[in-house]
Amino acid sequence: MIKILSSLVAFFSITALCAQNPTGEIPKLVVGITIDQLRGDYLEMFRHTFGNRGFNRLLTNGLVYSNVRYNFPNLDKASTITTIYTGANPSYHGITAEKKYVPESDSEVSSFFDNKYLGNFTTAKLSPLPVRVSTIADELKVASGGQSDIFAFAPDASQSLASGGHAASGAYWIEDYTGKWATTTFYKNKQPAVDQHNRSDESLSSTIGNITWRPAVDIELYNAFPYTKNRYRFQHYFGVDRKDNIRLFKQSPYVNKEVNDIAIKVLASASLGKRMNPDYLALTFYAGNYEKALDKNYSIEIQDTYHRLDQELARLLDAIDASVGLKNTLIFVVSTGYFDEREILPEGMISSGGDFYPDRSMALLNMYLMALYGREQWIRKYYNQQLFFDKKLLEDKKINLAEFQQNAAEFLVQSAGVQDVITSHQMLHGAYNENVHFYRNGYYKGITGDLFLELQPGWRIVDPQSPEQQRVRNNAVISPVIFFGSNIKPQKVDRTIEATEIAPSVSYRLRIRAPNAAKGEILKELY
Q1: Using alpha carbons only, what angle is made at residue 85 by residues 144 and 430, rounded to the nearest 5 degrees?
Q2: Total domains present in the chain
Q3: What is the per-residue pLDDT for 88?
Q4: How confident is the model at residue 15 (pLDDT cuts 50, 70, 90)?
Q5: Phi then psi for 368, rounded to 5 degrees?
Q6: Do residues 498 and 374 both lie within one domain?
Q7: What backbone torsions phi and psi does residue 497 show, to the nearest 5 degrees?
Q8: Is the pTM of this model over 0.90?
Q9: Residue 509 lies in a domain
């Protein structure tokens, strides 16, 4: 009887233990696909132009969540992608935006700037070290004892470094002036296939002069927007005579082909997914607007971008299936959750908002602070809707920083066009409310400013230092998250998930630790 009871206890213990582990085998390859500015509404509106092996294959056979939310302000490609791969908000991972202001040198630099490391095929000095926490790829490298190969390819450095992490075998991006695949000397290994491509006639620097972007299909199929006035068969030439040709190329669907070409080469040459430990491939594609499009709001170009992206996804999925097998691969597709749209009002239309001039507001604020604290230049910089004060001056004058910030905030909040002003002291020590918490998630001490300005929707920011004038609007968009392959059960889930839930969920499927700052829940459909 005792033996029977012991056997039953052992049986139920093992059963409970197995229930805590993900079903199926560990994937041999993980492919993280981030699509910058992918919109869920566009995905549905343009779906009639897609084939069966790209988006439609993912949407039909994948686990599809209807929307992902990033719970911090001023979304951009650097902050969102870092959040995806760390499972943490900028308040932990430290990448608050594509660029940051450095008060000590009064300069604007990449958030990934690192003077200790040189570049390969680039003059930029960058590294992943500004990401202050671990990533999915880092944890996989640790779990495999350094045996997993990890590669990241993206149009821009921030995307590549954030997704590749600190332990990548290689993280590459397209250099803005030469079109070569660039990297940083932070990574000690070189991938021969990338170097060979850079030195070959197939490199973008050699081919861009022959690339002209024209519609892939009859533009009558691009009929998603009934408001489009200019239905034209566009033509954009990326000739070598243009100084900004690489930058514009990165806003076209051809950048997705460039990323895909090198990824498929490395997939084969590095034998990814064919060893004992899982390998990792992180890719970033582009689904945003082309700035030279004649019709900014409802362009034919954006529909052609999605059509061509669908073809590239089909080509990638077929290559993975032929090399590793889709059943052996865990693929997740995530949007950056925002859309960078330049709003153009019809001639003669008067909007409800007005014009906000940062320089004028700062001048008025400084005069007010002079009246309170003495005739000094108290403000160092207005940058990215933040204010930076002269901290050394405040220390020398023995002025209480929290009180100074509060006085400045109470003055600024009365300005036309200002919805709210939140101080860094409030975010770190103040009373909790939903808005303060939202801005707190985007705050990192030593990188972000003393004041966050929340401007009223519809107002136009007129900054003499910036050629672009933008209207204030919430740039977050509905965007799906898709998990596919590796024993993923097809399912549509009408639920908004948090971006911080993705990394721990992928880690769970890999049976490794989540990144060290990840606090999100594991998505229950992936158990």
Answers
A1: 125
A2: 2
A3: 98
A4: very low
A5: -65, -45
A6: no
A7: -105, 160
A8: yes
A9: yes
